[in-house]
Write a structure and sequence with these properties.
Elements lengths: L1 E3 L6 E3 L22 H10 L1 E5 L2 E8 L1 H6 L12 E6 L8 H18 L1 H9 L5 E8 L7 H33 L1
Parallel strand pairs: 5-6
Antiparallel strand pairs: 1-2, 3-4, 4-6
Helix pairs in contact: 3-5
């Protein structure tokens, strides 16, 4: 941007501050686990990670497994991370409480999911990770506590995925 100097009427360059654009953290429709066949696959073949009051059920799905879950082929809008949140009615009777907890867990996930997405991009054999966050507590939990628990679950999931990758590489080396 150019401005005129008052005394000499010469143009003076004005410094413009350039900010790095952060990635948008919106939770889009393709990141929500909504296909009945994938939900069934998740709860049939998924693994559990606990951090009270939240349980994470997760399943790494390859391209072949994904194609096997759909008769007419894979739908177009399938993101690398798919998640759902469940707050059992037996634990929290009032709908207002269930919605509050669902919003808190969703917000914590939305803000802290990027590291997990990077891990999936690095791994070639995983097409997507299906996840279900299940609330196990009997009382409403503050957002700060839920965020710590969700972050802990996501970092433990990252470590497990990386550990499985290392074990697969070692098994391939042993076979050769």
């Amino acid at each position: 941007m150019m401005e005129m100097n008052d005394k000499s009427q010469e143009p003076v360059a004005k410094e413009v501050e350039v900010k790095a654009v952060a990635p948008r953290l919106t939770l889009r429709k393709d990141e929500k686990l909504r296909h009945k066949s994938l939900v069934g696959h998740l709860f049939d073949h998924g693994k559990n990670i606990y951090d009270y009051p939240v349980r994470l059920v997760w399943c790494a799905i390859s391209e072949e497994e994904l194609a096997a879950n759909f008769r007419a082929g894979e739908p177009d809008n399938m993101g690398p991370l798919q998640m759902l949140i469940t707050i059992p009615k037996k634990k929290r009777r009032r709908a207002v409480d269930r919605v509050l907890l669902r919003r808190r867990i969703r917000e914590a996930y939305r803000l802290n999911r990027l590291h997990l997405a990077d891990v999936i991009k690095r791994k070639g054999d995983i097409r997507m990770i299906a996840m279900a966050f299940i609330f196990l507590g009997d009382e409403n939990t503050p957002y700060a506590t839920l965020e710590k628990k969700v972050v802990n679950l996501l970092t433990r999931l990252e470590r497990k995925i990386e550990k499985e990758e290392k074990e697969e590489k070692e098994n391939k080396e042993e076979k050769e």
